[in-house]
Amino acid sequence: MDSFKGQGSIQLLLTAEQEAQHIVSSARNLKIARLKQAKEEAEKEVALYRSHMEAEFQKKISETSGSSGANVKRLEEETEGKIQYLNKSASRISNEVTGMLIKYVTTVKT
Fold this sequence. Notes:
Structural class: mainly alpha
Strand content: under 5%
Low-confidence stretches: none
Mean pLDDT: 87
Shape: rod-shaped
Order of helices and strands: H
Largest sheet: none
């Protein structure tokens, strides 16, 4: 009878080991499924973030390229104003500068 008891114990241990293997296998499969789901969710978030950033980038490009015409026009107006100011300043003092140059050219130092 002791041999039946020993075989029963061995059978009980084998059953417990198989049950433990099923539990571990089930836990692994569940972990793999959760990791796969987390990866898919992360990829969706990355795609959403990427599209959001791309939209912002395109918006900035359209804003800067649309206003570049206005910037060019503003710079041209500023440049034209500065040129006119310099021309007026030059015409005001040109007689004085011409006179001074003639004086220095015609004066002979001895």
